[in-house]
Amino acid sequence: MPVPYWRLSGFYLFYFAALGALLPYWSLYLENLGFSALAIGQLMALMMMTKIISPNVWGWIADHTGERMRIVRIGSFAAALTFAGVFFGQGFWWLALVMIVFSFFWNAALPQFEVTTLNHLGEQPHRYTSIRIWGSIGFIGAVAGLGPLLDHYGIGLLPVVLVMLFAGIWLSSLNVPERAAPPVSAQYEPLGRVLKQPHVFALLAVCFLMQASHGPYYTFYSIYLEGHGYSRSLIGQLWALGVIAEVGIFLVMHRLVPRFGLRILLLASVALATLRWLLIAFFVDNLPVLIAAQLLHAATFGVFHGVAIQLIHRYFQGRHQGRGQALYSSLSFGAGGALGALYSGFTWESAGPTVSFVSAALVSGVAWLVAWRTLRVSH
Fold first, then answer.
1. Mean pLDDT of 89-107
2. Is 122 left (phi over 0), alpha (psi -120 to 50) or beta?
C-alpha cells in the first residue's frame, strides 16, 4: 500500500505552523496583557503539565480501540473549539482554565499521529523525517510571517491566527486514512516490564531533562530579545532560522544514523544544547553569536527528536506503540516542559535571564551524563 505522503505531510504542516505561532509569541501576548514573568511561567507550565496526563489517556484509548485517526480528529476539533475561549476573558484563572482544557485535547493528536505515520511507513521508518520536514516548514512560515504582521497590527491579532491554524489541523486530519500496526504475537511483553528495562528508563529520563533545559528558551526567548532591542520581525526570523537548520538536518538524518549510530548522535545533540544555552546566556547582544546558537537547533531538536522517535518506536512494540509515543510526549514535552517553564519563570524573576539560561545548561549537562553512563544503543 503506497504511503499517503502529502496527506501525512499536510497535517504536520498545520500542526507545527500553529506551534510556530504559539511558542514564540504567546508569552509576548501574555506580557502585553500585563502578566509578570512568574505568572507567564505558571501559565506556560499549566499548558505543558496537561501533556503529562493527556497523551497517556488518549494513548490508552488508541491502543485498545485501534482508531488512532478518530482520536486525532476529535482532539483537533475540540482543541480549536476550546482555544476560542481566550476571546471571552483575560484574567489569570480564566486563561489558565482555557489553556488546560485546550491542551488536554490538542495533546491527544500528535503522539497518535506519529504512530499512524510510522505504521504507514512500515519497513521504511527512515522516511519519517522526509514527512516530518513539512512540520518544520510550517513552523518557519508561521514564525517568520507572523513577526512583521504583529509589528504592524499588534499582538492582539495572535489569538485569531491561532484559531485559524487549529481549524486547519482538524481539516487536514480528515484527509488522512487509518493505518493499523502490523500484526504481532499475542505473547507481548507487559508495559511495566518494558519500562523497567534500564535503557528504556534512561531514554525517558534523558528526554525529560532535555526538554526541561528548553524551558527558558520556549518561555522567555522572545521576551529576552525584545528587552534587548530586537524587533518582533527579527525575533521571528531568528526563531525561523533555528527551524531552517532543523529542516536541513532532517534532510540528511537518514545518512547520519547509519554512519554515526543513534547513541553518538544523541550524546552530541545534548552536548550542543548545553553550548547553545550558554551562548544565549552570555552573548544576547551579539547577533552573529545568536545566529550561531539558533543554528544549533539542528542538533538540540532536529537530531535529538529524530533519534528519540526511532528509539521509542523500537522499544515500544505492538499494542504498546501508542502509549510509548504518549510517554515520550508526556515525560518530555509535558513534565519536562512544565518543569522548564516553572524554574525559568522563578529564576527569571528572582535572578535574571542569564541565570535562567545557565540553569538550562546545567540541566542539559545532567542529561548528557545520564545518557553517557546508562544509555546503550547497538546501532
1. 94
2. left
16 inside domain? yes
Host domain of residue 328:
5-180+190-374
Give the count of domains, the chain: 1
Residue 40 domain flag? yes
Nearest residue to 78 (alpha-carbon basis) of 48, 102, 112, 54: 102
CATH of residue 29's domain is: 1.20.1250.20
Instruction: Identify whether 80 is part of a domain.
Output: yes
Q: Does 379 reside within a domain?
A: no
Report the distance separating Cα 51 and Cα 28, nearest Å. Answer: 22
pLDDT tens per residue across span 10-65: 999 999 999 999 989 999 999 999 999 999 999 999 888 887 888 888 878 887 88
What global pTM score does this model have? 0.82
Side-chain-side CA neighbours of residue 11 (13 Å): 23
* Structure confidence by residue, pLDDT tens digits, 290-320: 999 999 999 999 999 889 988 887 888 766 7
CB 327 within 8 A of CB 244: no
Closest to 12 (Cα-Cα) out of 180, 182, 159, 140: 140
